[in-house]
Amino acid sequence: MRVFIALFLLTAAAVTGLFALMHGDPRPQLKAAVERATPPIPALPDPAGVVQVEPAQPPGAGIHKCVKRGQVVYTDQPCPKDHDQRALDPERSRIVTLPATKPAAPAGQNVAKPASGGLDIAEDGSVRRAP
User: Fold this and answer.
1) Higher-confidence residue: 108 or 64?
2) Which portions of the sequence form the region Disordered (predicted)?
3) Has residue 74 got a pLDDT over 70?
């Protein structure tokens, strides 16, 4: 068995040597192929030319989850005294900004009610789940 392994290794070395003698070293061709396949990486922008964007909320302002008798209200203000503040789960919370007041309905038109389970904006500006 050892003899077969030794013969196999010698044969593989001979074939590799003959290939290198006939075709030359393949490394320069491989390097050229890699350089052709690699896209150019653009330079980073100059920091002096970057426009600063103001955050959607001022620093330190956060979303508060307020709970009262099983009803959950999300607000950017501190929770009222009769509500318990709970921690937000960032994996399950998706923040959506809504107007603070309901738009007035045009005269003579019925006010649309949110679908069951949808979000409703109360008169005080708080967002609640519709019954």
Assistant:
1) 64
2) 99-131
3) yes
Note whether residue 43 is domain-resident: no
Residues recorded for the chain = 131
Cβ atoms of residues 118 and 65 within 8 Å: no
Alpha helices in 24-110 (DSSP H): 27-37
85, two tokens: 């503040």
In a domain, 74, yes or no: no
Asked, for residue 24, whether it belongs to a domain, the answer is yes
Range of the domain at 17: 1-38
**Count of domains observed in the chain:** 1
Q: What tens digit of pLDDT does each residue of 24-67 get?
A: 776 777 788 888 888 877 777 777 776 666 555 454 457 788 89
**Within a domain: 61:** no
pTM: 0.27
Residue 83 burial (CB count, 10 A): 19
Structure tokens that stand for 88 in this block: 């937000």
Sign of the torsion angle spanned by Cα atoms 42, 44, 46, 49: positive
